[in-house]
Amino acid sequence: MPETTPYKESTPMWDKLKAHHAQVADRSILSLFETPDRATGFSAEAGALLFDFSKTNIDAEGLSLLIDLAEDAGLAERREAMFIGARINETEGRAVLHTALRNLDATPVEVDGQDVMPEVLETLDRMEAFASDVRAGRFKGQGGAITDVVNIGIGGSDLGPAMAAIALKPYADGPRCHFVSNVDGAHIADTLRGLDPTTTLVIVASKTFTTIETMTNANTARRWMAEKVKDPAAQFVALSTAARRTAEFGIAAERVFGFADWVGGRYSMWGPIGLSLMIAIGGGDFRAMLRGAQAMDRHFRTAAPAENLPVLLALVGIWHHQICGYPTRAVLPYEQRLARLPAYLQQLEMESNGKRVSMDGEALQVVSGPVVWGEPGTNGQHAFYQLIHQGTEVVPCEFMFAAKGFESDLHYQHQLLVANCLAQSEALLKGRSLDEARAQVSGKFEGEELERQAQHRVFPGNRPSTTLAYPQLTPGVLGQIVALYEHRVFVEGVVLGINSFDQWGVELGKELAKSLEPMVTGEAEPVGKDSSTRLLLDYAKAKA
Question: Which of 228, 404, 411, 510 is catalytic?
Answer without folding.
Answer: 510
